[in-house]
Design brief:
Layout: H1 3-17, H2 19-29, H3 43-57, H4 61-79, H5 81-85, H6 90-108, E1 116-123, E2 126-132, H7 138-151, E3 156-162, E4 171-177
Antiparallel strand pairs: 1-2, 2-4, 3-4
Length: 180
């Protein structure tokens, strides 16, 4: 996992609970906690920290991961505005992830272990996203999608009936625009 992901998790924890909480979580997780954004770290290290966040907040792990994805989107949009500014709407952005964003990330970080994402329109108000990754972080993807929906001011509903956590070979996320 790239260090930038750890940096954003730190930002979230510090923003919500302060630097002392971040240090306590690192100590409980048994990790050093110094992360350089462009370096690569073991996935297990991030999972240890996220588990400690879940324990400290006493909320379901899926809620922590989904909230982190939502928070992460806003931070990535700040750091890399060219990707969100290049698209005029949510579905255009989501369809650009694999052919544009992931392609650019792979050029910069050849060792990056990115999920595979392909999108297909169900109709003008629905997009189906297929997600594949050995990390099985589909809940993080849900949070990132929700963050993107907030950025593009598009209320959505996500349905996630097909999932790798239920023995499927991929996750299918059906994203529908909601009229408010």
């Amino acid at each position: 996992m790239k260090g930038v992901v750890f940096n954003i998790l730190e930002d979230m924890v510090v923003e919500k609970g302060g630097v002392v909480l971040w240090q306590q979580l690192l100590n409980r997780a048994g990790v050093a906690g110094s992360y350089i954004s462009v370096d690569t770290y073991e996935d297990a290290e991030l999972f240890k920290i996220v588990h400690e966040v879940q324990q400290a907040l006493d909320i379901p792990l899926e809620d922590v991961i989904r909230s982190f994805g939502d928070f992460m989107f806003a931070k990535l949009a700040e750091r890399y505005p060219m990707f969100v500014e290049a698209e005029g709407d949510l579905f255009g952005f989501l369809k650009s992830i694999e052919p544009v964003i992931h392609l650019e990330v792979q050029k910069l970080y050849t060792e990056a272990n990115l999920p595979t994402i392909d999108c297909a329109n169900g109709d003008n108000n629905r997009l189906v996203m297929n997600y594949r990754s050995p990390r099985k972080l589909c809940i993080l993807a849900e949070g990132l999608i929700q963050g993107a929906a907030t950025y593009y001011q598009t209320p959505i509903k996500i349905e996630h009936h097909i999932c790798m956590h239920r023995e499927a070979d991929h996750c299918e996320l059906s994203i529908s625009k909601v009229n408010v």
